[in-house]
Amino acid sequence: MSSSSSSSFFSRALGAGLLLALLAVFPLVAPLFGLEFYIGFVRRVLIAALAAASLNFILGFGGMVALGHAGFIGMGAYTVVALSDAGVMSGWLLWPAAALVAGLVAALIGTVALRTRGVYFIMTTLAFAQMLYFVVVSLRKYGGDDGYTLMSRPTLLPGLDLGNESNFYWVVLAIVALALWWLHRATQSRFGHALMGIRDNETRMRALGYPVFRLQLVAFAIAGAIAGLAGALLAGGNGFVSPATMHWTQSATLLVMVVIGGLGRSWGGPVGAVVWLVLEEALKQHTEHWHMPLGLLLIAVALWAPKGLAALYKRRLPLTPTLSTTLSPEGRGSKP
């Protein structure tokens, strides 16, 4: 590792550490300024950041333009509903189960959707997500279109009351931080490099011997599982789950977050989620026509920051390795 890349790594690590520390102390500081409401709001932003990052994993790094990602969030949330209704309250069981169910559903959908390309892939993912939406609407046991209210939040450790807003916030922060770190590491791995190679030139990667369909399917399932985890955290935080969580408009909102933040940037999803939700919250307090300024923001990003807001950070590394440096199946980089 060169001195320049080493200093860049440590500066990024320091910045991430400082951000994590600031987020960790926020629940302690917020009550001093009468900002208790924003503990729940920041928690919601963290969960949205995780969901957006999971979409960016397949969209920005994998080139798979999916318009049904909210369906996986809903599957995670309704897994929590079903297990809670059956008497399961442990977060150690609820959250992994939500990720597993959503990941399996994503794998099944991906098995079909990934055999299509372009607009047909978009429409296939949208169709499957809407099918899931209408399935949960028909489940009268879990409230149907009216939604389902959870009696209490999950349990985690003896003596740790997750009914306390600050305690639940810290648990969400820890889970989101670990998941985002794992996603970042995944994009830097051989698997991530292969995924980006497929995004840039699928034909060449197939000619090099890569199992393109299998790699895309694994990535799609991983993204679905992490979205399901976000849905489980959202259900626990809100105490209420509705089919509206998995409507196609929610998928479109996630897509917009990723575009605003930056496709193929590790921080793209989180940055987009923060900008979108903070502006939405601020604008709602001043006008009922808050959609219009957000639409103008999207147009401005498309015109003046097409690579997303995360790309405006001048001390960034290159977006992704080029095809000439993509790892071969034997693990060797091509010679320049």
TrEMBL record:
It is a multi-pass membrane protein. The keyword Transmembrane applies. GO terms for cellular component: plasma membrane. InterPro entries: ABC_transp_permease, LivM-like. The chain crosses the membrane at residues 12-33, 45-72, 92-112, 119-139, 167-183, 212-234, 254-279, 291-313. Keywords: Cell membrane, Membrane, Transmembrane, Transmembrane helix. Pfam families: BPD_transp_2. It is found in: Cell membrane. GO terms for molecular function: branched-chain amino acid transmembrane transporter activity. It comes from the Bacteria. PANTHER family: ABC TRANSPORTER ATP-BINDING PROTEIN, HIGH-AFFINITY BRANCHED-CHAIN AMINO ACID TRANSPORT SYSTEM PERMEASE. This is Branched-chain amino acid ABC transporter permease. It comes from Variovorax paradoxus.
